[in-house]
Write a structure and sequence with these properties.
By secondary structure, this protein is of the alpha+beta class. The protein has helices at 10-29, 208-234, 247-261, and strands at residues 39-44, 47-52, 71-75, 78-82, 115-121, 124-140, 149-155, 160-167, 179-181, 185-192, 199-202, 269-273, 279-283. Residues 1-30 form the signal peptide. This is Autophagy-related protein 27. One of its GO terms (cellular component) is Golgi membrane. InterPro entries: Autophagy-rel_prot_27.
Length: 284
């Protein structure tokens, strides 16, 4: 059995581990699929478009979420309630309708689903759950134009609701109407800054996935140095610059990197001029 080869020093092994972890994180985030129920990343034409509807913006600290806990749209004898990226919360004006057992029950109607509709049937307001947060999907409004916005679609047992969030960087216009298609499929539209792509990284003009990879490596490395320094300072009693873990390695790292690009051995040639004006080479 051959003898095992030399193992790299601990800091080098650490860098290799950090690089492997960062690669897995960076490549996972560079895919073309979506993240959570209100996150989506797609690649079109060499550019990465990222959406995060629940992320705060300067004018909207809850992103696309309604700060009231729900959106409400009334058309004729029907009332539609819904919330995006979260279940609905009613601190005022709760739904008052029958048949709310699968969305909070009669005492907490509307509090355990993402969308609910009330229709007047025979003089009574009857509720129907049309969307659940656990059954939701995010997609582009226009596959050929990602900057137009996204569609949030939620499903229930027999119904669904599609909410188109159109990109508008200047105004948030709440929905005031909805349409019904088929037996129980609802759709509504509104404009909001959160419907705009949060980051666009064009191929050749941005860092793309490599930038994500580099940030991940630096974050992991910084966390290692910080945790190591705190441990050595408080638990080992090292109260000087020596508290930085593997200090000698970090000091010598620039030279180590330099030697990777400069040959370790080379012939140095000096040129001396003789009295006749010719040059002769002298090797050391």
């Amino acid at each position: 059995m051959p003898a095992p080869g030399p193992r790299p020093p601990p800091p080098v092994r650490l860098l290799l581990i950090l690089f492997a972890v960062a690669c897995s994180c960076g490549l996972a985030g560079a895919g073309g699929g979506g993240g959570g129920s209100c996150e989506l990343s797609v690649t079109r034409g060499g550019a990465l478009y990222s959406f995060a509807l629940a992320a705060p913006t300067p004018a909207h600290r809850h992103g696309v979420l309604s700060e009231d806990g729900f959106y409400k749209v009334a058309v004729n004898d029907s009332i539609l309630w819904f919330q995006l990226c979260d279940e609905m919360v009613f601190n005022f004006d709760p739904p008052m309708c029958l048949n709310c057992e699968d969305c909070g029950g009669p005492l907490r109607c509307g509090t355990q689903c993402g969308a609910l509709v009330s229709n007047n049937v025979g003089g009574y307001d009857v509720c129907t759950t049309i969307g659940s947060l656990s059954d939701s999907h995010l997609s582009l409004i226009d596959e050929s134009n990602p900057q137009k916005g996204v569609v949030v679609k939620m499903f229930s047992t027999k119904c669904s609701i599609s909410v188109s969030v159109i990109c508008d960087s200047t105004v948030a216009q709440v929905p005031d109407k909805f349409v019904v298609s088929g037996r129980c499929d609802y759709a509504t539209t509104f404009k909001h800054p959160s419907g705009c792509a949060r980051s666009i990284s064009a191929s050749g003009s941005g860092w793309g996935w490599f930038g994500t990879l580099l940030k991940t490596i630096l974050s992991l490395l910084g966390g290692y140095i910080l945790i190591g320094a705190v441990y050595r300072y408080y638990f080992l009693g090292i109260h000087s610059v020596e508290a930085i873990p593997n200090l000698d390695f970090w000091i010598g790292l620039p030279q180590r990197i330099k030697t990777m690009f400069v040959p370790a051995t080379r012939n140095h040639v000096n040129y001396n001029r003789d009295g006749l004006g010719a040059y002769v080479s002298v090797s050391h």
